[in-house]
TrEMBL record:
Residues 1-41 form the D-isomer specific 2-hydroxyacid dehydrogenase NAD-binding domain. Transmembrane segments: none annotated. One of its GO terms (molecular function) is NAD binding. It comes from the Bacteria. InterPro entries: D-isomer_DH_NAD-bd (IPR006140), NAD(P)-bd_dom_sf (IPR036291). It comes from Bradyrhizobium niftali. This is Phosphoglycerate dehydrogenase.
Length: 90
């Protein structure tokens, strides 16, 4: 992979391993990372969501992230309702 490459993940947080990603970003093997999804950990009751990266990747200057909002596009809710109604009708 070229050192000028950017990795973009809008699929699932678990598709990317956090430690190798952090290493690639901090050593310059990867120019940047953008994500709409994050890593999931089970912290139990103290922090039930547990989606903050352990290595603080979101704080690196070559990382851009959002909070898992890809499903909030304008027409997604309308399509979900339509599909749900179709499934109930069957």
């Amino acid at each position: 992979m070229k050192h000028s490459a950017f990795l973009i993940n809008v699929a699932r947080g678990k598709l990317v391993q956090e430690k190798p990603l952090h290493e690639a970003l901090t050593t310059g093997r990867l120019k940047g990372y953008a994500a709409d999804v994050w890593f999931r950990y089970d912290f139990g009751r103290t922090y039930p969501r547990g989606d903050v990266p352990r290595l603080q990747i979101q704080k690196l200057p070559n990382v851009i992230g959002s909070i898992d909002q890809a499903a909030n596009a304008d027409d997604v809710l309308e399509r979900y309702i339509h599909w749900g109604a179709e499934n109930l009708a069957e």
